[in-house]
From TrEMBL:
It comes from Roseinatronobacter bogoriensis subsp. barguzinensis. SUPFAM superfamilies: Class II aaRS ABD-related, Class II aaRS and biotin synthetases. Keywords: Aminoacyl-tRNA synthetase, ATP-binding, Cytoplasm, Ligase, Nucleotide-binding, Protein biosynthesis. This is Proline--tRNA ligase. InterPro entries: aa-tRNA-synt_IIb, aa-tRNA-synth_II, aa-tRNA-synth_II/BPL/LPL, Anticodon-bd, Anticodon-bd_dom_sf, Pro-tRNA-ligase_IIa, Pro-tRNA_synthetase, Prolyl-tRNA_ligase_IIa_type2. It is found in: Cytoplasm. It is an enzyme of class 6 (ligase).
């Protein structure tokens, strides 16, 4: 992409309505525009990151054996009456009447709809285990939408649902989700810590929330500092292996880590030596849940078991806050100048700054780098505007591409361009060819 042809409406002023840094930076970098309270348009740069995050989520779900599909945003109230949640859900549910006077709603989640699909098509234990998921817009009429995409009313969520014959099999599905979530967040450059959470109105003893530590987080969290040393890394886990997935769960959840809802000061003191006790704030970027037969019993989702007996299936639901993740990543990775995207989610792989637009040698070198990056399957953003170098650097720093190539007549006389890391600010001079090799090596490891 060439900046002169792109749509990147960066703001010079710091928007006064934004209270936290991620919201400010997303507005300033021209990533989103508020359409109404808690509802945003995703401008091209924001949309690109959203798609990158979605892609990682898809890849990791599919790797875990979970099956993608797509359910509608608008649902019929009838199914929610069957589960009993139509009345329970309260004001957060956006209720709609169609022209025939039928009660509809904009889905805040999809347990009812997926259970209806399941009961219509699956009859036998032989079709289990089954985990279906989608990435779809949700609407929750939050009383206080705030912090930009962090607490929106309309937001993008990955929600997955497992169907299993018994509790044991459903807990394996739970563990599979935990493993796939750890992998997903790490690929996004994030540390998200699984913390024991509260079953809430859905109930259920097995639930963990994934929290990214950040001062602006809405949850208060309590944990053993050892937990922040855990890394999933690139280990290969066999998702079909019950003991392997169970071992990951134990490794990542045996230490004390709880949100304020489940925190118990006495247990905290008993289990964690004082020097390792931490209290902090966190952003919830996902949650996994085993809730047994709650929906399958209410809605008659049963299968015939090996013994010929019919019984309700054991279910769980598992969510990732796809759109919230943009805010969480920026909260975790920025500086005074702007965003610092982790390589895994960056909207463009590398920026190219032409210090002297119109200079024949500089223009030609930039074109060469641009085409060479494309040929390597990478997406460059070439700042080909007729602007001062300072303004170009400021834009690149604000939008946070992890790597920048700077090209000017003086360097070219020596046969070099400058490659700069957004994170460290360190630069090195390389020949254009060597710079291309370096960038492709960096992304080959992501
Ligand atoms: N209003 C929202 N805006 C953006 N993302 C959200 C919102 N509500 C939930 N999410 C994301 O969707 C994920 C799964 O949804 P879940 O039903 O667990 O949300 P929740 O526990 O009600 O969230 P919260 O406690 O933050 O209101 C959450 O972990 C969060 O990352
Ligand atoms: Mg939750």
């Amino acid at each position: 992409m060439r900046l002169t042809r792109y749509f990147l409406p960066v703001l010079k002023e710091t928007p006064s309505e934004a209270q936290i840094v991620s919201h400010r930076l997303m507005l300033r970098a021209g990533m989103i525009k508020q359409a109404s309270a808690g509802i945003y348009s995703w401008l091209p740069l924001g949309y690109k990151v959203l798609r990158r995050i979605e892609q990682i989520v898809h890849e990791e779900q599919i790797r875990a054996g979970h099956i993608p599909m797509l359910m509608p945003t608008i649902q019929s109230a009838d199914l929610w009456r069957e589960s009993g949640r139509y009345d329970d859900y309260g004001e957060e549910m956006l209720r709609i009447k169609d022209r025939h006077g039928r009660d509809m709603l904009f889905g805040p989640t999809n347990e009812e709809l997926i259970t209806d699909i399941f009961r219509g098509h699956v009859n036998s234990y032989k079709d289990l285990p089954l985990t279906l998921y989608h990435i779809q817009w949700k609407f929750r009429d939050e009383i206080r939408p705030r912090f930009g995409v962090m607490r929106g009313r309309e937001f993008l969520m990955k929600d997955g649902y497992n169907f299993d014959l018994d509790k044991e099999a459903a807990l394996h599905a739970y563990n599979r989700h935990l493993v796939s979530y750890l992998r997903s967040y790490e690929r996004m450059g994030l540390q998200a810590i699984p913390m024991r959470a509260d079953g809430g109105p859905i109930g259920g003893d097995y639930t963990h929330e994934f929290l990214v530590l950040a001062e602006t987080g809405e949850s208060e969290v309590f944990y053993d500092s050892e937990i922040t040393d855990l890394k999933f890394g690139d280990r290969a886990v066999d998702y079909d292996s019950v003991p392997e997935c169970q071992a990951v769960l134990e490794e990542f959840t045996s230490r004390y880590a709880r949100t304020d809802e489940t925190h118990d000061e006495a247990v905290f003191h008993e289990q964690v030596p004082e020097a390792r006790r931490r209290t902090a704030r966190g952003i919830e970027v996902g949650q996994i849940f085993y809730f047994g037969t709650k929906y399958s019993e209410a809605m008659g989702a049963t299968v015939v078991g090996p013994d010929g007996q019919r019984s309700p299936v054991h279910m769980g639901s598992h969510g990732i806050g796809v759109s919230r993740l943009l805010g969480a990543i920026i909260e975790a990775s920025h500086d005074d100048k702007g965003i610092i995207w982790p390589e895994g989610v960056t909207p463009f792989h590398c920026g190219i700054v032409n210090l002297k637009q119109g200079d024949a040698a500089a223009d030609a070198a930039c074109e060469g780098l641009y085409k060479a990056l494309l040929a390597k399957g990478l997406e460059p953003l070439y700042d080909d505007r007729n602007e001062r170098a300072g303004a170009k650097f400021a834009t690149m720093d604000l939008i946070g591409l992890p790597w920048r190539m700077t090209v000017g007549p003086r360097g070219l006389e020596k046969g070099v361009v400058e490659l700069t890391s957004r994170r460290t600010g360190e630069s090195e001079e390389l020949s254009p060819d060597a710079a291309i090799v370096r960038i492709s090596q960096i992304y080959a490891q992501i």
